Amino acid sequence: MVKVEVLGMILAGGQGSRLYPLTAKRAKPAVPFGAKYRIIDFVLNNFVNSGIYSIYVLTQFKAQSLTEHIQRYWRFGTFLEDHFILLVPAQMYRYEELGPVWYRGTADAIYQNLHLVHNHAPMAVAIFGGDHIFKMNIRHMVEYHYEKRADITIAAYPVPVEEARRFGVLQVDEEWRITEFQEKPQNPKPIPRKPHLALASMGNYIFRTEALFELLEADAKESASSHDFGKDVIPRALKEGYRVFAYDFHRNPIPGQEGPNLYWRDVGTLDAYFEASMDLVKVVPEFDLFNPEWPLRTANLFSPPAKFVHETGERVGRALNSLLAGGVIVSGGTVRESVLFRRVRVNSYSLVERSVLFDDVEVGRYCRIRNAIIDKDVKIPPHTEIGYDLEADRARGFTVTPEGVVVVPKGYRF
């Protein structure tokens, strides 16, 4: 195989149980987001926009829709050997050594595929999660990694100290070399000279290739290990004196974007997913989908334009502060602060507000929907209310989140 400078490896095998029922039939990275994308698209765009074109995507749970999405729509062609995005399913590659086991953790997923790294002999391996919403110039982080002569560089996100208990927290010295790693500490240590902030690990790493092999081979021999980068590999690296540095995500430059890079969201729960979706419909959103200097590619499905029809009395087709994909028809209804995916239809006299409607949802006449996530291919009959009586919604079998968001599963029939 052709040698590459930086090899990208995306961890896309997560089960996503906290996103159920959105993950009932799809992997977490395949969950739709932002009217036309899937969650995996954002990290893929980060690699491609950063000029890193040699990428493996490691899959495991319910990977069919994710596999189809990447195979159909993320292709470079066949002329450049170092331009590829290839799916790597869990396949027990080390069966003779480990026995019949799937990926046992984030580190083990890479360990079971070290032969791919060996084949390309890269200087560095960029290991990123496939389930976050963010923009990142990964090339800038790679250059920082080289400048520091680091064995490992960890992308870090400054968060208020009081919020840091939910994350792995990095303690750094004046050079931003990591001196300590705390997994969800009760009393997080702040950044030097910034007592109100702590450094949270984003779970995105750059490894010097030789260090990656050494650490993963040692971890694989530890029967008590959970084979996780944050819990096992990074603490081992610090204990054994490897050069481990933090990279400040806020300083990451995005072409066409002014100011610090502040937006990173883990959409691992239904409420977090809903909140991130509502971020997109703000008048001036924190996460801009419309930056031409940082294009966000996805499936080109050749949908017709969105359409708004009827303007008679209260029968007015309109959408306010919302994102609408191609093929949407708002036929005499009102849409406010919502995200509508392809071919959604909102019929006359209906109101949809603060909601996310996936592909092929149809809202009948005189419906009222608020604070809802409605998965694909749901047909809502006339005069239906969702999000107004949570007990009635639970009685229908819908999921109601702690924040009161109602989730209707894929293909539900009333």
Automatic annotation (TrEMBL):
This is Glucose-1-phosphate adenylyltransferase. Belongs to the bacterial/plant glucose-1-phosphate adenylyltransferase family. Alpha-D-glucose 1-phosphate binds at residues 103, 168, 183-184, 201. Residues 8-281 form the Nucleotidyl transferase domain. Involved in the biosynthesis of ADP-glucose, a building block required for the elongation reactions to produce glycogen. Catalyzes the reaction between ATP and alpha-D-glucose 1-phosphate (G1P) to produce pyrophosphate and ADP-Glc. Pathway: Glycan biosynthesis; glycogen biosynthesis. NCBIfam families: glgC, PRK00725.1, PRK00844.1. GO terms for biological process: glycogen biosynthetic process. It catalyses: alpha-D-glucose 1-phosphate + ATP + H(+) = ADP-alpha-D-glucose + diphosphate. The gene is glgC. Homotetramer. The keyword Aminoacyl-tRNA synthetase does not apply. It comes from the Bacteria. It comes from Thermus scotoductus. Its EC number is 2.7.7.27. GO terms for molecular function: ATP binding; glucose-1-phosphate adenylyltransferase activity. The keyword Nucleotide-binding applies.
